[in-house]
Amino acid sequence: MGLLDDIVAAKRREIERLRAAPTPPARARLGVDPMDVLRRPDGEPLRLIAEIKRRSPSAGALSTALSVVERARAYVAGGAVAVSVLTDGEFFGGSYDDLSVASAAVHAPTLCKDFVLDEAQLDHAAAAGASLALLIVRLLDDAALARLITAARARSLAPLVEVTDEAELERALSAGARLVGVNARDLDTLAIDPDRARRVLDQVPRGRVAVHLSGLSTPEHVRAVAAGRADAALAGEALMRADDPGPLLARFVGAC
């Protein structure tokens, strides 16, 4: 089994625990549409989503010098328009509690970034105050993808549908995705391929919001993404390696 198979197996065990627990009530969210926050009008800068995660299989342990609240506030103060929070515990060290405190700390949309397979996970994302939820096409068949897109919207969560190639993009669009993320990282090998990501982003139709995911570590990377089709981009590990993410985030914002 590969890493992604291991993650999915662990996630199914977690889902059983979530299903057995009482369904938490949804928390009131921001009165703004995340799609409007992430959409980039012609001539305007790339929108940045900054991520909070404690560790990852590719990067290992990351900085915990700042609390989740401190880091979320530093991101928004530094120019990020949204905050992504890893909620997977076994592989990324995150939790719905992290998402909850981040959502309460900032007046900006928060993304529940996880390996979503079941509506119970969306219930917990909504209870933690998220405005968006990640859905990964590679993990879902067509019926499950369409069902979870509908279920997310029913909970006032904007589904960010992640793809890696043209075939997955076609599946996402056929399922009704309006917010499409293209992951430059292959989830099986963990290798980064910015050329593939750029090619797929170029094929996201106008009228949909396109987000570049993973692989941004320098202002030059950000500048290259900003020159293309993307409305927004997510920056994660590079910011999380820094005890103080402010200086690097300022350079990223300046490259948008």
The gist of it:
This protein has about 260 residues and is of the alpha/beta class. The protein has helices at about 5-20, 35-40, 70-75, 95-105, 120-125, 140-155, 165-175, 195-200, 220-225, 235-240, 245-255; strands at about 45-50, 55, 60, 80-85, 110-115, 130-135, 160-165, 180-185, 210-215, 230-235. It contains 11 helices and 10 strands.
Helix content: 40-55%
- What is the number of helical segments per DSSP (H or I, 4+ residues)? 11
Tell how many strands the DSSP assignment holds. 10
What is the spatial order of strands in the main beta sheet?
A: 1-4-5-6-7-8-9-10
Overall mean pLDDT score?
Answer: 95
- Domains, number: 1
Question: What is the CATH topology classification name?
Answer: TIM Barrel
How far is it from the N-terminal to the C-terminal residue, by CA?
39 Å
* Principal-axes shape call: globular
Low-pLDDT parts are: none
Largest sheet: 8 strands, parallel, barrel
The Cα radius of gyration reads 17 Å
Structural class: alpha/beta
CATH 2nd-level architecture: Alpha-Beta Barrel
Strand content: 15-25%
The sequence of SSEs as H and E is HHEEEHEHEHEHEHEHEHEHH
CATH class: Alpha Beta
CATH H-tier superfamily: Aldolase class I
